[in-house]
Amino acid sequence: MREAMASFVAKLTFREMCFVLGELRGWRQARDFFAWMKLQLCYEPSVVAYTILLRLYGQVGKIKLAEETFLEMLQAGCEPDVVACGTLLCAYARWGRHKDMLMFYAAVRLRDIVPSISVFNFMVSSLQKQKLHGKVIHLWEQMMEANVVPNQFTYTVVIGSYAKESQLEEAMDAYGEMKRRKFVPDEATYSLLISLNAKHGKGEQALRLYEEMKVKSIVPSNYTCASLLTLYCKNEDYSKALSLFSEMEQNKIVPDEVIYGILVRIYGKLGLYEDAQRTFEEIDRAGLLSDEQTYVAMAQVHMNVQNYDRALQVLNSVRAGNVKPSQFFYSALLRCHVAKEDVDAAEDTFRALSNYGPPDVFCCNDLLRLYMKLDYLDKARALILKMRKEDLQLDEDLCVTVIEVCCKTGTNENSDRLMEEIQENGITMKNASIVIQNEGSSSVQSPTDSSALSMTLKSLLARPGGLSSVSQLITKFAREGEEARCHT
């Protein structure tokens, strides 16, 4: 470098040397040229030259050299400005050094230096790429405290992180502020907000966002359409769902497997079984059939018309393909075997479900109902014992089934104890549950022993709709010729 620059000694001003330094593209050349600069008489330590070198090191990932350069700048008595600090922050962000970035940012704020919005954007974007959404939100809050004015990119990133953290209110607040500043959200932002509102049960708000998209001529993505279709299905608004499919065709949006699967479910709900089957076959021909949920959706359509053999055929094709079955798949398979009253197959499926952890209350209830229907009371009792050992939290439907088993097998002490546990745990039971319990109890109690019956009647009358349940009991007793109980 000294030989190359020999003819320029004492001929370049400091400003000209800085210009040359900034035009260099190789970090080694820049390092050597800066060393030569410091030997010149006109050189004086300046934050400008150091910042240029920091930028070059940051672009190629020479973080250690950048840190050494920043330290040298401090030792030379140059006070770092907002540009120098922002340059090193961007270097950390570019190369994923998030811990160092946040530590350095804290040190910068201690000097009362507030980075520019472009630096903040670099930082939050880098954090979001690493799915550090909590840190994005924390940095956003610090931006607001420092009165940094965000731009459209900032809002887009922050709303995305709020959505990923499922913070609906904060996401909508940021969206409202974004609109007040006259920024137009992009499709991805609308998509995240629509999905977030739908998950939080804010269906009307999600649909308003979609209407805003249409007004602004923003074409929805597959993900947005899938969120809307799921919402329409949940609300049983199938006409709007089919209308959205028509809009997708007009906008030349190619449906993916998720959307096709939703369409299969909609056709099934509407009783259009041939259309559902045709759509399923189209998915298969297009080579899109790779999600077990699509298979389960088609199997459910067959089960709805009690075509259990076809449903099993569809579900068994999951194993034949490259689709790995999950707990969701085995739950559907269990429902099918239960409907066919195939105890052996149902038990095999239930055991397969147990490999994923304790089966949920719905699967337990399905199998228990099958045992009840076929009068396999020993197996029913064994399953109840297994559930209690696994400390399964019963919902109301499963509670009713368990009480029925206890009453049918004459183990009323167990049903009484279960009702006490239900009340202690705060589970709200329908009046029908108490009716079932009383029916079981009445079969073993003496007709003259009315204490338990009186307690049951008082409990029923204290509940909403209790009078109707008491009427059911009186009708039952009258039908069985138990006049004494009717008068109770």
Automatic annotation (TrEMBL):
Q: Where are the PPR repeats?
A: 46-80, 116-150, 151-185, 186-220, 221-255, 256-290
- One family name in Pfam for this protein: PPR_2
Report keywords, A-Z: Repeat, Transit peptide
Annotated SUPFAM superfamilies = HCP-like
Q: Which family does it belong to?
A: Belongs to the PPR family. P subfamily.
Quote the protein name from its UniProt record: PROP1-like PPR domain-containing protein
**Species in which this protein is naturally found:** Leersia perrieri
Boundaries of every PROP1-like PPR domain copy: 124-272, 304-425
What InterPro entries does UniProt report for this protein, alphabetically? PPR_rpt (IPR002885), PROP1-like_PPR_dom (IPR033443), TPR-like_helical_dom_sf (IPR011990)
